[in-house]
From TrEMBL:
This is Alanine racemase. The gene is alr. GO terms for molecular function: alanine racemase activity; pyridoxal phosphate binding. Its cofactor is pyridoxal 5'-phosphate. The modification N6-(pyridoxal phosphate)lysine is found at residue 34. GO terms for cellular component: cytosol. Residues 233-357 form the Alanine racemase C-terminal domain.
Length: 360
C-alpha cells in the first residue's frame, strides 16, 4: 500500500468547536462544513459534531442534501442561497436556512408556492463586494420579505473581507454598516467567521460561523493556531521511499531546478501534487522526519517530492515523513508556499486515504 495517509482527529474538531462557543457564550454556531468539511470528510465531521453543533453551513444544495441526510434536525445554512429557482422547492423540503443575496433570489423566493416557510438570511454587502445588498436595497427587500408567506425567520448576515488582518480599517467599517441596519427588526443576526469569533467580540451577534478554526488552522498570518488554543485536525503523513547521494553540481527533479552546492543526501517522499501538496512550494519548505525539520528541494512531482537529508544522517528509507500536522502547522507550510491553510486542507485529493481517530 502506498505510504500516504491523512489522519483526521475528530476529537480535535470537537475541541475546536467548543473553543468557538467559549469565545461567545450564549451564542449559537453554524459549523462551516462546505468543501467536504475543508477536506476532512463531511460525513465524519457532521457525525462527530452531531450532538454539539447548533447548525451547519454549506456552499450549495448538493452539500446541504448530504448534511441533512446525516442530521435530521440541525439547522443547515445555504451560504450563497439557491442558484436556480427550482432549488428552492427542495430547500424547503429539506428545511434549509437560505441566504438571499440578490434581487433575483428574492423574486424567486416570493414566487414560490410552499407549505412550510423558510428561514431566510438577507445578506448585506457591508464592504466585501462579492455578494449581498447595499443598505438601500436591503431595506427595500426587507419590506418585501417581512410578512411574506414564504418567509419564517427573517435574518441578517454579512461576511468580513479582512478580519484575518487584525486592526484592518475595513473590518471596523463593515461592522459599522452591519450595525446601521439593525434598526430593522431581524430575528437573528450573523457576522463572525473564525477570525472575528477569535478577536472581535462586538461582531459575535446571535450566530457564529466558524470554519477554518474548527480544523485547527489559523485565519491569521501573525497568530498561530496553538496560541489560539486550537488543535490541528489533519495530519498528512508519508514515508521516505528512496535515498541517494548527489554530487556537487548535480541537479534534482524536473527541470533540473535544484542544484547541489555540497555533496547532498536526497530523500524521496511518497507525496506529490496529485495528492494536494502544492506544486509551487519552493525549496526550503519544511517537512518533518524524526522530529527534525528538513527542507524540500527540487520541484514537487505528481506522486513524489524530494528533501535534503544531508543534515539528518540517521534518516533511513521507511522513515515517517510529516507533511503537516502535530509537529508542523499546516499554516507554516502554506506560508512557505505562498498560500493559506484553507487551500492546502481543501485540496488534499480523494486518492489520499483518510483515517479517522477519536483520541486527543
Ligand atoms: C459566508 C461565510 N461564512 C463563514 C465562513 C467561514 O470562514 P472561516 O473559515 O474563515 O471561519 C466562510 C468561509 O469562507 C464563508 O464564506
Amino acid at each position: 500500500m502506498r505510504p500516504l495517509v491523512a489522519t483526521i482527529n475528530l476529537s480535535a474538531i470537537r475541541h475546536n468547536y467548543a473553543v468557538a462557543k467559549r469565545c461567545a457564550p450564549g451564542r449559537e454556531a453554524f459549523a462551516v462544513v462546505k468543501a467536504n468539511a475543508y477536506g476532512h470528510g463531511v460525513r465524519e465531521v457532521v457525525t462527530a459534531l452531531h450532538d454539539e453543533a447548533d447548525g451547519f453551513a454549506v456552499a450549495c444544495l448538493e452539500e446541504a442534501c448530504e448534511v441533512r441526510a446525516l442530521h435530521a434536525n440541525a439547522r443547515v445554512l445555504l451560504l450563497e442561497g439557491c442558484f436556480e429557482a427550482i432549488e428552492l422547492q427542495l430547500a424547503a423540503q429539506l428545511r434549509l436556512d437560505v441566504v438571499v443575496q440578490s434581487q433575483r433570489q428574492v423574486d424567486q423566493l416570493l414566487a414560490l408556492e410552499i407549505e412550510q416557510p423558510l428561514n431566510v438570511w438577507m445578506k448585506l454587502d457591508s464592504g466585501m463586494h462579492r455578494l449581498g445588498f447595499d443598505d438601500h436595497l436591503l431595506r427595500e427587500n426587507y419590506a418585501r420579505l417581512r410578512g411574506a408567506k414564504q418567509v419564517g425567520e427573517l435574518n441578517l448576515m454579512s461576511h468580513f473581507a479582512c478580519a484575518d488582518e487584525r486592526g484592518h480599517t475595513l473590518t471596523e467599517d463593515q461592522l459599522e454598516r452591519f450595525l446601521e441596519v439593525l434598526d430593522l427588526d431581524f430575528d437573528q443576526r450573523s457576522l463572525a467567521n473564525s477570525a472575528a469569533i477569535l478577536t472581535i467580540p462586538a461582531a459575535h451577534m446571535d450566530w457564529l460561523r466558524p470554519g477554518i478554526m474548527l480544523y485547527g488552522a489559523t485565519p491569521f498570518a501573525d497568530l498561530g493556531a496553538a496560541e489560539l488554543g486550537l488543535k490541528p485536525a489533519m495530519q498528512l503523513d508519508a514515508e521516505l521511499i528512496a535515498i541517494r547521494t548527489v554530487e556537487v553540481g548535480e541537479t534534482v527533479g524536473y527541470g533540473a531546478g535544484w542544484e547541489a552546492l555540497r555533496v547532498s543526501r536526497i530523500g524521496t517522499v511518497s507525496c506529490g501534487y496529485a495528492d494536494g501538496y502544492p506544486r509551487h512550494a519552493p525549496a526550503g519548505t519544511p517537512l518533518v522526519i524524526r522530529a527534525q525539520r528538513v527542507p524540500l528541494v527540487g520541484r514537487v512531482s505528481m506522486d513524489m517530492l524530494t528533501v535534503d537529508l544531508t543534515d539528518l544522517p540517521q534518516a533511513e528509507v521507511g522513515d515517517a515523513v510529516q507533511l503537516w500536522g502535530e509537529q508542523l502547522p499546516v499554516d507554516e507550510v502554506a506560508s512557505a508556499a505562498g498560500t493559506i491553510g484553507y487551500e492546502l486542507l481543501t485540496k488534499v485529493t480523494a486518492r489520499v486515504p483518510r483515517r479517522y481517530v477519536q483520541e486527543e
